[in-house]
Amino acid sequence: QVQLVESGGGLVQPGGSLRLSCAASGSIFSINAMGWYRQAPGKQRELVAAITSGGITNYADSVKGRFTISRDKAKNTVYLQMNSLKPEDTAVYYCAGRRLGFTEYDYWGQGTQVTVSS
Question: Which pLDDT score is estimated for 27?
Fold first, then answer.
């Protein structure tokens, strides 16, 4: 089992920045990729950014150039740096882990609220 704990959410004005953190513990050797998802009220959950164990990253078109996913292997932590935030970025953000050989993310954190509002 893998445990994921997010932190760093909050209220920020449009144009501001936040950094989310996701600390992983447990059987992390089984994880091949980490991702950040978000879900806004009334909308489907969407993948915002992901990073593989090899360091390959990908981003949703809506956040390219504004968000950056990174990791600190020594701390077993994945980060999501969010810049130039917009009101439409408001959502609950979830950290997720995907095991080697699996196509779906099956480890999830509890979520952290990000609200972008003036």
Answer: 83
